[in-house]
Design brief:
The structure is a homodimer.
Chain A lengths: L4 E8 L12 E9 L2 E7 L3 H9 L22 H14 L6 H20 L3 H4 L9 E7 L4 H14 L3 E5 L7 H15 L4 E5 L8 H5 L2 H6 L4 E3 L7 H8 L6 E3 L6 H10 L4 E4 L1 H4 L2 H14 L2 E4 L5 H8 L10 E5 L4 H5 L27 H4 L3 E2 L1 E5 L2 E5 L4
Parallel strand pairs in A: 4-5, 4-11, 5-6, 6-7, 7-8, 8-9, 9-10
Antiparallel strand pairs in A: 1-2, 1-12, 2-3, 13-14
Helix pairs in contact in A: 1-3, 2-3, 5-6, 10-12
Chain lengths: 389, 389
């Protein structure tokens, strides 16, 4: 099959707030070949990535991403690897490239799976899949009382693990303590509690260390993103001074970065977003490496169920990687991207879809109200226009 | 002073070839305040970075770069640090951000220097500057004979150090040997020879190791970029098996990445481009760290003399960092960006300009023929247009 078209669609809520909630807009990718279509989603700034996809080349290692994808042969998983390598080489010096390519790569898997009539997990080399324990991923409340109520409500819904993140956490020691205690109180003793601080301490080891006591007392499952992704020395220092496992890696935009974090940061959990790291194949490479290094792989997802499935596929066949991040506060746009949604099974776990391709379908009619039309002119001539959905 | 305007200009040669020659297009930045203007240059894909500069926000950590710069106070170097930190936080999840901000940050130094009537090196805390030994940075010839002639010609021009890079080097062992021998023969015994392979071996330690013998025999000063920037394990492995110093770091897009390379890769030379790493302040942070770790700092530059000055300023006050990369194969566009050009002094060395700001002026009339006009519409409404030069 030939990749005949790659189309990018910028979807957006009517209003975007300053919440750090990645479900407020989306960059969807549709790839077409042999009368079939595959879909994927980038975790990326839509307009920036559209420009990256179609920009005039700057030199031999700065081609637009489209250059290495359009018109290529796609008949096997090896073709996706080859295309990924070519994108990396030909667009190496455009920093945005992995964000842009991630959704395209995911769409290629979906298209290939439909073409070969295989679910993606089988094409990845897994014989079977294992259910994952979802943790309800949500923002801290604006008050400790709201955090408590959110925790209580998640427990009631049947979650066995809950993660609180971002909000104002990490700024004020006393407030932080109240939120952590409220979360643990709301969840009771047995529910797992994860804490995500969204790089709030940058590379400041002392700020992080001063919270270890409260985190240990609340028996948290992990502390996520205490520092910027590249703060290796701070990560290493913190990991050596606590038994609280550290989690991080969502910012990794290629497999080598994630391997470096595994090798040098003392992580307990490596968290990878297929929509950021370069797609499902790149994420699978990290999962394989995590197996060999006795580090737990977990998906990172804060957007649609299309993105969610794309991020659990890379480790769905590894029984020992038990958790998955399950976003529970999606904006309507992110919910409306797919026709079906992945629900908790009777045991409160997540099953991986068995259908061909990604196993989840985009709701083309449902997303139309969110579509933002982009047009770019260069020197007075039309250079790019959003294609029709 | 208030930052009243930040304008991005996409300049391009009429034809862009597949050479890996970054001087074929440029993204220039002009910042204005108090009736003064400052200039900077990004080492970035121009259209991608323009989109990054003005894109609608996606959430609280994905603002356009413009959001954290326009309208800000600028009265001291601390203001530049504050703005840099704000850009990092508010645009954290847009991968392209550091490439886009780099040129803006450089322009802020230029503007501030003109406002305070100080050269940038003094604002960076240096009392005086030290001349640097330039190495002529150029591509390998297409044949060993052409490489020989280029070497010979550089020696004749008065260079004491020459770097050959990219081309077809690194693919064929026998050909590589011929090029290395031709380069050394052309340069004679005393001229320093650097070799830049532009990540050709990705993360393949064996491919690199098989060239060590020829590199040692040719007495090369360093082997540059044997692997992708993130290939830490391969770098470390190679550094432990040779006395040839390794050089790398041009891909670092924040100071933490560069510090990680210094800490974990066994580098002899860290090579930083102010137009990539986030600007002059970020590059200076790496230079300071390199001092403490006994690693040599060198600029990376393959574009205009504006970019060249921006990349030597961060270490111009450190006497022990002796080399600088001096591009000698610039396309006319890159040459035409500045009115003056930095020439070798009588000793064949590079002096740092003493004038206020960056100390080098943009040729506004000279660049007009290269200007590419960008217009972006969203949902039928004009959203962005290249301002007038």
């Amino acid at each position: 099959m030939i990749i005949e078209a790659v189309d990018l669609f910028y979807l957006s809520m009517p209003e975007i707030t300053n919440e750090v909630d990645g479900s407020q807009d989306a960059l969807l990718v549709r790839v077409s070949g042999s009368g079939l279509t595959g879909w994927g989603e980038c975790e990326a700034s839509p307009l920036t990535s559209i420009a990256n996809f179609i920009c005039p080349k700057s030199h031999g290692a700065a081609h637009p991403v489209s250059y290495s994808v359009l018109g290529q042969e796609l008949n096997s998983p090896q073709d996706i690897v080859r295309i990924s390598n070519e994108v990396r080489e030909k667009s190496l010096t455009i920093l945005q490239t992995p964000h842009t390519f991630s959704g395209i790569e995911i769409a290629l898997w979906d298209l290939l799976g439909k073409y070969l009539e295989e679910p993606v997990y089988k094409m990845l080399g897994f014989d079977k899949t294992f259910s994952k324990t979802p943790y309800a991923s949500q923002l801290f409340g604006s008050t400790p009382d709201e955090t408590y109520k959110k925790a209580k409500s998640s427990l009631k819904t049947g979650y066995r693990a809950v993660k609180f993140g971002w909000g104002k956490f990490g700024i004020d020691l006393t407030e932080d303590q109240k939120h952590i205690e409220a979360a643990r109180e709301g969840l009771g003793k047995d529910c797992k509690l994860m804490v995500d601080v969204g790089s709030v301490w940058k590379d400041d080891l002392n700020e992080a260390s001063s919270r270890l006591d409260m985190l240990e007392k609340a028996d948290v499952q992990w502390l996520e993103e205490p520092f910027y992704t590249d703060s290796f020395s701070a990560y290493k220092g913190l990991s050596q001074s606590t038994k609280v496992p550290l989690a991080g890696g969502e910012g990794c935009h290629n497999p080598l970065m994630a391997k470096n974090m595994i090798d040098f940061c003392g992580l307990g959990f490596i968290q990878i977003d297929s929509g950021i790291i370069g797609g499902i194949g790149s994420a699978k490479e990290v999962a394989d490496y995590a197996v060999s290094r006795d580090v737990q792989f977990v998906n990172h997802t804060f957007t649609s169920h299309l993105a969610f499935v794309s991020s659990i596929l890379p480790y769905c066949g590894y029984e020992d990687f038990i958790f998955c991040e399950y976003p529970v506060q999606l904006k309507p746009l992110a919910w409306d991207i797919t026709i079906e949604h992945i629900q908790l099974n009777d045991e409160g776990k997540i099953d991986i879809p068995e259908k061909t391709g990604l196993g989840i379908e985009v709701d083309v009619e449902g997303i139309k109200p969110y579509l933002s039309m982009v047009k770019i002119e260069l020197d007075g001539k039309e250079f790019y226009q959003t294609p029709s959905l």
